[in-house]
Amino acid sequence: MVTIVDVAKHAGVAPSTVSYVLSGRRPVSAGTRVRVKESIQQLGYRPHVGAREPVSGRANVLALALPLREGVHLPVVMRFVTAVATAARAHDMDVLLVTADQGAAGLRRVAGVDGFLVMDVGMDDDRVPVLRELGKPAVLLGHPATVKGLTCVDLDFEAAGARCVDHLAGLGHRSIGFLGAPSVVYTRNTGFAQRTLTGFSAAAMRRGVTSTALPAEQRHGSVRAVVSTLLRELPRMTALVVHNEAVLGWVVECLRAEGRRVPEDVAVVAICPDELAERLRVTSVQLPAEVLGRHAVELLMAKLAGHEPPSLTLLPPKLLSRTGAKNGIQNNFATNAVE
Questions:
Q1: Angle, alpha carbons 286-292-298 (nearest 5°)
Q2: pLDDT tens sequence across 76-95
């Protein structure tokens, strides 16, 4: 099936320009309009019936549903918000940020927008049925257990959890701890947290690695207690995977307080933004908030133009090594090497 993206590439323009030609929502130069229409004809593109005529009554507003609830780390989610707002502005769209933790009711409250972007998605998210009910174009940053009939984009968190273990096991580590998100995040059955833990646990079993996984609250005392428990339950622990960027600095501090040098005694691999890992000099799986935010907006604009994107787009995890030898196990960490 020919898509709006195919037409854009053929005409040498952005997908949004094709959308503007189809909808008449924004002026396009005569030459560009002719070029786009020629590409549509040559490729045999058939836009959705709703995209063939100028759209009237559109608000030019997208709703970003991001409930600010316990366990959400604001500095990281604001990177998504900035990326979404910037990408939306490039399409002449404003963004309505919906932060109340009202679930399905929160979406109904702003049903007059042109489309929805939904974050902090649960495995059985109660907002999914109302998205179907409202019938508005929507894109989820994250994905529930079932994605049929939805459009979702996310980092492949299950692969990310496994990637951390495979990296460490490849360096010779045989006892690896996992310090996860706050317990409420797992209680809510949040997709990214559950999938990371699943990937970590499956990879540890596959590689024959001894492991223990524990949640950690966003308090120094909790982190200290979790680090102590992990060292007690895994007395030979030489590596630790951290999926809780809010406490990463405390993790390193608490390990040192327990007499463990980082990275000489305990290798730390985190799933977090690059600049945080760079500041602490720990190996990390990149959290591509900007890429995900921009891609979510492009998918939503394609849906508004009548195109139906894939149900699920997963970005593969990229691991960036920053530290030297780990506990004398193996000295093959390549500085600043993306794996």
A1: 155
A2: 999 999 999 999 998 889 99
- Structure tokens belonging to residue 237: 């622990």
Q: pLDDT, tens digit, for every residue of 125-137?
A: 999 999 988 889 9
Residue 250: count of CB within 10 angstroms of its CB: 22
Reported as a single tens digit per residue, the pLDDT across 250-276 is 999 999 999 999 999 999 999 999 999
Single-letter amino acid code for the residue at 102: Q
Q: How far is CA 28 from CA 191, 221, 285, in A?
A: 41, 58, 41
Helix (H) or strand (E) holding 98, with range, is: strand 94-98
Closest C-alpha among 190, 187, 184 to residue 216 = 184
Pairing of strands 115-118, 138-141: parallel
Radius of gyration of the chain measured on its C-alpha atoms: 23
Q: Which two tokens stand for residue 55?
A: 């759209």
Task: Answer for the pair 317, 159: CB distance below 8 angstroms, yes or no.
Answer: yes
The Cα–Cα gap between 130 and 99 comes to 17
Contact 302, 4 (CB under 8 A): yes
Is the per-residue pLDDT at 50 higher than 90?
no
The H-assigned helical ranges of the chain are 4-11, 15-23, 30-43, 74-89, 104-109, 127-134, 157-170, 183-187, 191-206, 220-233, 248-257, 274-280, 289-304
Q: Are strands 337-338 and 319-321 parallel, antiparallel or unpaired?
A: antiparallel
Nearest to 42 by CA among 51, 34, 53: 34
Residue type, 332: N
Of 304, 300, 301, 306, give the one whose Cα is nearest residue 49. 306
With contact defined as beta carbons under 8 Å apart, do 273 and 79 qualify?
Answer: yes
